[in-house]
Write a structure and sequence with these properties.
Elements lengths: L2 H29 L42 E4 L3 E4 L9 E6 L2 E6 L13 E6 L3 E9 L9 E3 L6 E2 L5 E4 L14 E8 L4 E4 L6 H11 L5 E8 L5 E7 L7 E7 L6 H14 L4 H9 L1 E5 L4 H5 L22 H15 L3 E11 L3 E4 L2 H21 L6 E2 L11 H9 L3 E7 L4 H20 L1
Helix pairs in contact: 3-9, 4-9, 7-9
The protein binds zinc ion (ZN).
Length: about 450
């Protein structure tokens, strides 16, 4: 075949895959339409067998697609009650006042088709303190994220389940089909703003604060490796004790904005590697750590459900590199490889319905990839209270996702490390710490 024949063939093949995927999506949505009453716990329900993982990702184009930017401002009702999305990380696309202190909120995605991760975040306050009811409704989605509230925008806690009413509970056993269509929140509002958010708010400014707080350490530095399309810096943190070291670990997080639990585990992981334990000190004599904690700063600050400002799922762009965020990491890794760095381990932190590991199958990676499986075993042995599934992948071409690119282009044993949306926060922290300790132990042996 000529080059043209081959490219047409690939295009046709990709389009057929996309059609099959869309048909599947439509069918899933139809199945989830009819609902009966179930308890509030359905929001956070997980089967004891654990999350079985997602099907292989379809190949999709990653050239820019239009994004609907949300209108930003304050909605005022009766001159006394105010809702705002005028802050980084917010998502609130419309409100209707229905009478009797009941409000319906409308949450839409930045563009479609899109993964069902309906992010929301807004503030509400009033001159007339009282209880109001707020119904959350979504564009082509259901209520995935359990609402968190905060009085300062920094410290969030789960809204008491007695304050949440489920409307149209999901009929499925797991995932979006188990989620309710709507939820109604009873909120005590006063003169000071109350934040309501899908997950804790970690905006680019807050992540920067964390990077700066670690960078006061002698062996931690940070610098820009590029800029997003809205010119937000792509910060890379470098943990480097010994100038002659040429072995490194590569860590990235938050390609997908709502995936805060993955970020929190990554944060604990990095704090452990840069800690003061004898193991960490010895480890840093042998290995450097490179971290991009916030891969999608535009998506995070704009309150996106999944995509960047180019309207693209960044974790589909590690083959074609059409987006500035993935390009910046590609350029960085190419530079480090050219400097003679050997990458001994890579991890990309995400969140999904429950904790799960997505390594590359050892039939593909052989001896080189064994460290990833030994590492998972080490973590599982130390945290037996949470049984976590492992779903190895045998497909690494096209590279498309970061893990495959890390392995194929930089010979790096790599994994997608997924944490559950509802995994308890103290457990996330512990898991990040144990994961770091087990990695140090393996690499030092
Ligand atoms: Zn993700």
């Amino acid at each position: 075949m000529t080059a043209y024949d081959i490219s047409d063939f690939i295009k046709d093949y990709r389009q057929s895959l996309l059609r099959v995927f869309m048909a599947f999506l439509f069918l899933s949505l139809c199945i989830s339409c009819k609902n009966t009453a179930k308890s509030v716990e359905k929001i956070v329900d997980t089967k004891s067998t654990g999350y079985q993982g997602q099907a292989p990702s379809p190949v999709v184009p990653t050239t820019n697609r239009p994004v609907q930017k949300q209108w930003k401002g304050v909605w005022t009702f009766n001159n006394e009650t105010f809702f705002s999305n005028d802050f980084d990380g917010a998502r609130l696309n419309g409100i209707a006042e229905d009478g009797n202190d009941h409000y319906t909120i409308w949450i839409t995605a930045e563009n479609t088709p899109i993964n069902v991760s309906p992010w929301y975040a807004f503030k509400v306050w009033t001159e007339n303190p009282r209880e109001i009811t707020v119904k959350l409704s979504y564009q082509d989605s259901r209520s995935r994220y359990y609402p968190k509230i905060s009085r300062d925008g920094l410290n969030f806690k789960k809204l008491d389940s007695a304050q949440i009413e489920i409307l149209n509970p999901g009929e499925g056993d797991f995932g979006i089909n188990a989620a309710p269509e709507f939820v109604e929140l009873k909120l005590q509002i006063g003169k000071e703003p109350l934040w309501i958010s899908a997950q804790e708010l970690y905006t680019s400014k807050r992540v920067r604060g964390w990077i700066d707080s670690l960078s006061v350490k002698r062996f931690v530095s940070n610098y820009e490796i590029g800029r997003s399309s809205e010119k937000r810096p792509m910060h890379l943190m470098e943990i480097k004790e010994d100038a002659t070291t040429k072995k490194a670990v590569m860590i990235i997080s938050r390609q997908h904005p709502p995936e805060v639990t993955g970020f929190l585990a990554m944060k604990s992981f990095i704090e452990t590697l840069s800690g003061e334990s004898p193991e960490a000190i010895a480890f840093r004599e042998e290995f450097d750590v490179f971290v991009v904690p916030l891969m999608n700063p535009d998506g995070v600050d704009n309150g996106h459900w999944r995509h960047n400002m180019g309207g693209i799922d960044l974790n589909r762009d590690w083959e074609n590199f059409n987006q500035p965020e993935t390009q910046s990491v590609q350029n960085f890794l190419n530079k480090k490889s050219a400097e003679g760095y050997e990458f001994v381990f890579g991890a990309d932190f995400h969140s999904t319905w429950d904790d799960i590991y997505y390594p590359i199958d050892s039939t593909v990676t052989g001896e080189k990839g064994q460290i990833v499986f030994d590492w998972i075993d080490g973590i599982s042995n130390r945290l037996p209270q949470k049984q976590t599934n492992i779903k190895p992948s045998t497909t690494i071409h096209p590279t498309m996702v970061s893990r495959n690119y890390f392995y194929v282009n930089h010979n790096m044993p790599a994994i997608v490390f997924e944490l559950g949306d509802n995994t308890p926060r103290d457990f996330l922290k512990e898991k990040g710490k144990v994961a770091a300790e087990e990695l140090m132990k393996l690499l030092m042996n």
